[in-house]
Design brief:
mainly alpha
């Protein structure tokens, strides 16, 4: 397998020529782009807009990466579009077959389903290449949704039978399948992208990835509004075709960008998955429990799901009560959820296209992480003051969901840059799949206490949602500070070889130790190798993809089960980590 191409230095790309008089002046910090200098007035204007929104990192220094960014965006577009189509149908199917009042219980039970999936997912990563795992996920869900679509069209057990009953297993299966697909496929995509992009490219390019992916979300939610014309079973079958398209897009990526594919599992990891399957399955969990930094990433990635679950359920209960219980009402409710998806994803598209890269480059990731918790805190307060109202909740949830997709999620993805591949794939799965599902279950417990009484839910749920929003804001402050310190010191979270005496398990200088050397004057890690430590890491460049003949576990002097495996070298050290204290 080929290695990652080195990122060219900015100095090598700068040109000394002065711009012509009829050319727009470039900022002094930006090298001149030949395409911009020789293009038409419109192309030069387009470059000015692009540099303003995305910076010269993407428009000049990483121009060669634009096709790959576009392809990643198209792949995520397929995933998000398929999920939004199915997610818009999820509550209609569950309400018709089981009853919406049982949704809080479904969220709790989904934790067990995702736990099983994450355990086997971690083991698959030790047995197959990353693209192969993507194929298995996509094709497996495609088959599942095709079978569900056939069952939903059946007059006895499907949608034609409108007598809701908690014993109708099909409603539970469809709910768990749709929920788990959204979590697992999206988490794996971002792990795939994070392992092949540099920090600079991610800061400038992830906004574009999210923006054009939202076009798929708009298309998926728009298709859901056709439920009254083509029927829910047909749309569910269309979701299965979307899963097959994802597999095809991944195959195309491997063909077109073969040098930018995450590495295959090492022989040591493959052997470990055979000899000690439970150790292989729980690798990601060990990492989350071991490192304080990952515990904070867990908090900022998952706690908001409790608040969103409470507000979302409140909106759906009020909306379902307004339309009634007839089959026509079920279709109208599905159309309302489709309209909700349209508004949410249109807002998300606009912000991710025009705002994310500009915000994160202007404020820095440390301050950007605080924006979403602050808006959530405001939305909770507005909902509490104005009492339960469908359109107030509709507006609040649209803004919160849009910022979740366009601001909070891509910002939290950047937190995985100073981590090992084991953290990016295995620990991230425990955080994004199991962790978010567990927090949704916690929100479901709050909803279950009020059941289908929105007025009681607004009063009962306001206090915990308010406290959680405040806690999320505090976590954002802490994790942003640790991220800046990790980048400045060139520390890799998850790799014990980058920890020196005096470093805590968060990877940062601890009390009583001499810690790490000061960063260079340019604010980046120096290239020297301090005595007693490993070389500094430049997180502006992607990590090299070692050939199969020189896998990480086979490098001289390294024992199996080291940093690549993600497993702690000494189980006893787990007991004294700050994350567990």
């Amino acid at each position: 397998m080929s290695t990652f191409p080195a990122v060219e230095s900015r100095e090598s790309e700068e040109e000394s020529d002065e711009p012509e008089e009829d050319e727009p002046l470039l900022p002094s910090s930006s090298p001149r782009s030949p395409a911009r200098a020789k293009g038409s007035k419109f192309s030069r204007w387009l470059y000015r807009v692009g540099e303003r929104l995305y910076g010269d990192d993407l428009m000049v220094h990483h121009r060669d990466e634009l096709p790959r960014i576009a392809y990643l965006s198209a792949t995520l577009c397929c995933i998000i579009g398929t999920f939004w189509l199915l997610d818009s149908l999820k509550d209609t199917i569950f309400d018709t077959l089981v009853g919406l009042e049982h949704q809080p219980k479904a969220k709790v039970l989904s934790v067990g389903v995702t736990l099983v999936l994450v355990l086997y997912y971690n083991r698959l990563l030790d047995q197959f290449s990353k693209p192969a795992v993507f194929y298995l996920i996509s094709v497996g869900y495609a088959a599942a949704f095709a079978l569900i679509a056939l069952a939903l069209s059946n007059e006895a057990i499907g949608m034609p039978n409108t007598a809701s009953d908690p014993r109708r297993v099909l409603g539970w299966i469809s709910y768990f399948a749709i929920e788990s697909f959204g979590s697992l496929a999206v988490a794996f995509f971002w792990a795939f992208a994070n392992s092949t992009c540099s920090l600079e490219l991610a800061e400038s390019g992830y906004g574009l990835v999210i923006a054009f992916a939202q076009l798929g979300a708009v298309a998926g939610s728009t298709l859901a509004t056709l439920a009254t014309l083509v029927g829910v079973p047909a749309l569910c079958g269309l979701g299965g075709l979307g899963c097959l398209m994802v597999a095809g897009m991944v195959r195309g990526y491997v063909t077109l960008f073969s040098g930018m594919v995450p590495g295959a599992p090492s022989d040591a990891n493959w052997k470990k998955s055979r000899e000690s399957p439970w150790s292989s399955m729980c690798t990601g969990l060990f990492l989350v429990l071991r490192y304080e930094y990952l515990a904070l990433v867990f908090g900022i990635s998952c706690l908001d799901e409790i608040v969103l679950t409470v507000l979302d359920y409140e909106m759906k209960v009020i909306g379902r009560a307004r339309f009634g219980d007839t089959p026509e009402a079920a279709a109208q409710f599905a159309a309302l959820m489709g309209n909700f998806g349209q508004v949410t994803n249109t807002l998300s598209f606009a912000f991710s296209l025009l705002g994310f890269s500009l915000v994160v480059r202007t404020l820095g990731l440390r301050r950007t992480l605080r924006l979403f918790p602050a808006v959530m805190l405001l939305a909770v307060g507005v909902n509490w003051l104005l009492k339960p109202d469908l359109w107030v909740l509709f507006a609040c949830m649209s803004v919160l969901k849009a910022l979740t997709y366009a601001l909070n999620e891509p910002a939290t993805e950047l937190l995985y840059m100073p981590t090992t591949e084991a953290v990016k794939f295995k620990a991230k799965a425990w955080i994004d799949v199991f962790g978010t599902r567990a927090m949704k279950a916690a929100g479901g417990l709050i909803n279950n206490a009020a059941r289908d009484k929105p007025a009681l839910l607004a009063r009962y749920g306001s206090v915990p949602t308010l406290l959680i929003s405040l806690a999320l804001l505090g976590i954002a402050v802490l994790v942003g500070k640790q991220f800046d310190d990790l980048i400045a010191h060139g520390v890799t979270v998850g790799d014990d070889d980058s920890l020196r005496p005096g470093l805590s398990q968060s990877g940062l200088p601890g009390p009583g130790g001499r810690g790490l050397d000061r960063p260079s004057q340019k604010g980046r890690p120096s290239d020297d190798q301090p005595s007693g430590g490993s070389p500094r890491v430049d997180w502006t460049k992607p990590a090299p993809n070692f050939p199969t003949s020189q896998r990480l576990s086979e490098r001289p002097g390294e024992q199996p089960g080291g940093p690549e495996s993600g497993l702690p070298k000494s189980p006893a050290r787990l007991k004294s980590t700050p994350a567990l204290a």
